[in-house]
């Protein structure tokens, strides 16, 4: 048993290293960014080179359609700042993206480790390999998008949920929703129900207190930090949610049909593993013995939560793959289950 555990851990470390090399590869061959990344990219630059002289910051001249939080760029800048005197601005940006990719990978590794407890090291390792070989997840891992900052928290929160660390799950999910992507409430709602059903989350005074404290702390932190940088009182993610969900102005950037995520977006992200996900579901639905096992039931419940998120999100007319990319790791678990069963 000890030998098998050692082999499993060494394989895990090897796959994590492979994933990091792939992320670095994408950082190097794709050095430029799209307009969606411009705010965070410029914010990292301004924090490093202008520090407290906010009047020089780019966002005051080019604010964009909606205000974004400075919490993500601020965190990356803290790790990049010590190296900035020794490298060019281009290299500093590359270092910042590599740091973001490393934080993402830490979350991915934590999720794979958490999965080992329920599904075994084989599925955990297959999950890592599948994810590493998919283009979109590894590509977005180092992009300075609000979605990527949120994705880091999503991975750690999923790991906490599978480990039954419900207080940590509540904290991380609350931070992801209130500071980075408000629409993640559509993702965490089904996940919370999943956690309650499988007793990974237990309603008690400590949990309620954690939820209230996280809500108050995340909103206040965002308001105080971002109001300083934006030079007016605001809660960025509140304004973004109102713009996208209430006013539905995101549709000005184009619309796609309801079925796009299920028939085009997710298959594009999953690539060949789409067939493994389908096979896994057929196996669970058609084989009663497979369906009755606790790990399988747990995995199927996790997938239902992900499907619910994508289904509800499909009602918003403006669609981009990065909006639902948080569900891909869950589908990759299903693919890993199918692969192991062959």
From TrEMBL:
It comes from the Eukaryota. InterPro entries: GPI_mannosylTrfase. Pfam families: Glyco_transf_22 (PF03901). The chain crosses the membrane at residues 12-29, 94-111, 148-165, 171-194, 206-225, 258-285, 297-315, 321-339. It is a multi-pass membrane protein. The keyword Transcription regulation does not apply. One of its GO terms (molecular function) is dol-P-Man:Man(7)GlcNAc(2)-PP-Dol alpha-1,6-mannosyltransferase activity. It catalyses: an alpha-D-Man-(1->2)-alpha-D-Man-(1->2)-alpha-D-Man-(1->3)-[alpha-D-Man-(1->2)-alpha-D-Man-(1->3)-alpha-D-Man-(1->6)]-beta-D-Man-(1->4)-beta-D-GlcNAc-(1->4)-alpha-D-GlcNAc-diphospho-di-trans,poly-cis-dolichol + a di-trans,poly-cis-dolichyl beta-D-mannosyl phosphate = an alpha-D-Man-(1->2)-alpha-D-Man-(1->2)-alpha-D-Man-(1->3)-[alpha-D-Man-(1->2)-alpha-D-Man-(1->3)-[alpha-D-Man-(1->6)]-alpha-D-Man-(1->6)]-beta-D-Man-(1->4)-beta-D-GlcNAc-(1->4)-alpha-D-GlcNAc-diphospho-di-trans,poly-cis-dolichol + a di-trans,poly-cis-dolichyl phosphate + H(+). GO terms for biological process: protein N-linked glycosylation. One of its GO terms (cellular component) is endoplasmic reticulum membrane. Pathway: Protein modification; protein glycosylation. The keyword Transmembrane applies. It is found in: Endoplasmic reticulum membrane. Keywords: Endoplasmic reticulum, Glycosyltransferase, Membrane, Transferase, Transmembrane, Transmembrane helix. Its EC number is 2.4.1.-. Mannosyltransferase that operates in the biosynthetic pathway of dolichol-linked oligosaccharides, the glycan precursors employed in protein asparagine (N)-glycosylation. The assembly of dolichol-linked oligosaccharides begins on the cytosolic side of the endoplasmic reticulum membrane and finishes in its lumen. The sequential addition of sugars to dolichol pyrophosphate produces dolichol-linked oligosaccharides containing fourteen sugars, including two GlcNAcs, nine mannoses and three glucoses. Belongs to the glycosyltransferase 22 family. This is Mannosyltransferase. It comes from Schistocephalus solidus (Tapeworm). The gene is ALG12.
């Amino acid at each position: 048993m000890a030998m098998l555990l050692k082999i499993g851990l060494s394989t895990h470390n090897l796959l994590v290293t492979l994933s990091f090399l792939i992320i670095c590869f994408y950082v190097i061959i794709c050095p430029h960014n799209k307009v969606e990344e411009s705010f965070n990219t410029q914010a990292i630059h301004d924090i490093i080179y202008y520090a407290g002289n906010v009047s020089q910051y780019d966002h005051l001249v080019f604010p964009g359609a909606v205000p974004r939080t400075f919490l993500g760029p601020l965190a990356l800048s803290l790790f990049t700042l010590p190296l900035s005197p020794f490298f060019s601005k281009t290299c500093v940006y590359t270092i910042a993206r590599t740091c973001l990719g490393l934080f993402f990978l830490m979350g991915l590794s934590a999720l794979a480790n958490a999965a080992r407890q329920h599904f075994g090291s084989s599925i955990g390792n297959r999950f890592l390999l599948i994810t590493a070989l998919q283009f979109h997840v590894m590509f977005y891992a180092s992009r300075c998008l609000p979605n990527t900052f949120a994705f880091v928290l999503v991975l750690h929160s999923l790991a906490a949920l599978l480990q039954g660390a419900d207080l940590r799950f509540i904290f991380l999910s609350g931070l992801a929703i209130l500071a980075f992507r408000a629409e993640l409430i559509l993702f965490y709602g089904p996940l919370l129900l999943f956690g309650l059903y499988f007793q990974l989350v237990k309603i008690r005074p400590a949990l309620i207190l954690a939820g209230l404290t996280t809500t108050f702390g995340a909103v206040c932190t965002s308001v105080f930090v971002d109001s300083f940088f934006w030079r007016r009182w605001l809660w960025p993610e509140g304004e973004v949610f109102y713009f996208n969900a209430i006013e539905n102005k995101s549709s000005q950037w184009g619309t796609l049909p309801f079925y796009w995520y299920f028939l085009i977006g997710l298959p594009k992200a999953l690539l060949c593993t789409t067939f493994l996900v389908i096979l896994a579901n057929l196996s669970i639905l058609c084989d009663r013995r497979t369906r009755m096992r606790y790990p399988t039931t747990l995995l199927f419940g996790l997938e239902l939560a992900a499907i619910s998120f994508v289904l509800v999100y499909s009602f918003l007319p403006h669609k981009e793959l990065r909006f639902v990319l948080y569900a891909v790791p869950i589908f990759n678990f299903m693919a890993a289950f199918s692969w192991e069963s062959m």
